[in-house]
Amino acid sequence: FGATVIPNRGAWLEYETDAKDIVYVRIDRTRKLPATVLLRALGFGSDQEIIDILGDNEYLRNTLEKDNTDSTEKALLEIYERLRPGEPPTVESAKSLLYSRFFDAKRYDLANVGRYKMNKKLHIKNRLFNQTIAETLVDPETGEILAEKGTVLDRRNLDRLIPYLEKGIGFRTLSQVGGVLEED
Asked: What is the superkingdom listed in this entry's lineage (predicted)?
């Protein structure tokens, strides 16, 4: 089995499984690495966090077994070494590289059709139902607070927020400092 995410602009992600039911990912046609390494680099540091997000199944267990990283930092360094061989890796440079490859709107864009198809395929709305928002969501264009930290995503809230997600608006997070909201 294989799948490729081809963005309008930015790094390609190629997913494939092998005969041992291990899921691998290639970032921009580099050497393959277990897909869980990418998940760890994105902030899901422990095996249990990954299982909680994706559910327990044979593919995931086999991939976690193959994964030799056990923290976000180690995963970031592993990806950096694959994408920039020969350069001395640091956690900060690895974070910066991952951000620029996938989270910088100027360098990465799925486009509306790609984002719509991805959300449909992954059943984003169903996965978000009854989840609690970990950080306050703010529309970066208007500064309007869309949902407060701790809000439970019921159908009404989801129906209101999904259009923002489908438009690909990246949310800023705000933190309260001395009674004043401040951008992180």
From this structure: Eukaryota
Which one, of 6, 68, 71, lies nearest residue 34 by Cα?
A: 68
pLDDT in tens, 34-47: 999 999 998 888 89
Read off the pLDDT of residues 119-164 as tens digits, 9 standing for 90 and up. 777 777 787 888 888 888 888 778 888 888 888 889 888 888 877 7
Q: Are 50 and 39 in contact (CB under 8 A)?
A: yes
Residue among 149, 122, 124, 125 nearest 136 (CA): 149
3-state secondary structure of 130: coil
Element (H, E) at 95: helix 91-102
Nearest to 114 by CA among 2, 9, 1: 9
- Using the Cα atoms of residue 67, residue 73, residue 74 and residue 75 in order, give the sign of their dihedral: positive
| Domains identified in the chain and CATH numbers | 2-102 (3.90.1110.10), 111-183 (3.90.105.10)
Angle in degrees, CA 74, 60, 131, rounded to 5: 85
φ, ψ dihedrals at 17, nearest 5°? -115, 150
